[in-house]
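STRUCTURE REQUEST FORM
Protein name: Helix-turn-helix domain-containing protein
Source organism: Faecalibacterium hominis
Requested output: structure tokens
Priority: standard
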Amino acid sequence: MFYDCYTALCQARGISRSRAAQEMGLSNSTVTKWKNTGATPSGETLAKVSAYFGVPVGELLGEAFPSVQEERKLPEGAVPFDPALTAPLLGTVRAGLPMYAEENIEGYIPITRKDGARYFWLRVRGDSMNAVGISENDEILVREQPEVENGQLAVVMVNGDEATVKYFRQEGSLVVLTPKSFNPVHQPQIYDLKRVQVRVVGLVVECRKVF
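Status: completed
Returned output:
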């Protein structure tokens, strides 16, 4: 199906489907139509997609090109790109918006983990964790899970607000979210689960520095 091919090409380039469509002068509703109906674009649109990604139109339609595939053989020792080993980069995590909504995905970044868990990258905002080397605009890899152990670094959502990255600890009905920052304005936050909703989104497992 064309949409599957389009999705794989976007992931290989590290760009969201909506962003690629925008750069080609196409609407998000067009991409949604490809997804929901399995429709094949018009010849004019196929030409745009072909030029944008640098692939033959026939390849977009699922046709085989043995000679082209031969030319694309990887050098010895190289690792082939696998779209399954990527995770979406989210600009933020907010309540009320599906976490993997198209408008929330800024691109795709490769991952090396093959444990079957679901992962996403999150762009860090603010300086509340800079004392442990996590700075503004860094990208953290998060494993989706509803619980973490005390003392682990987690992405947490409080009262449905935008998610925050803090060290997590729970004692009874009290949850303490602790920053690690050189900025003294950031202090531990204490919440009573009887009064405030605190939800763990996932466990931080990796940080990718962005300069």
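Reviewer notes: The beta strands are 86-90, 105-110, 119-123, 139-144, 153-158, 164-171, 174-178, 189-192, 198-208. The first helix runs from residue 2 to 13.
Form closed.
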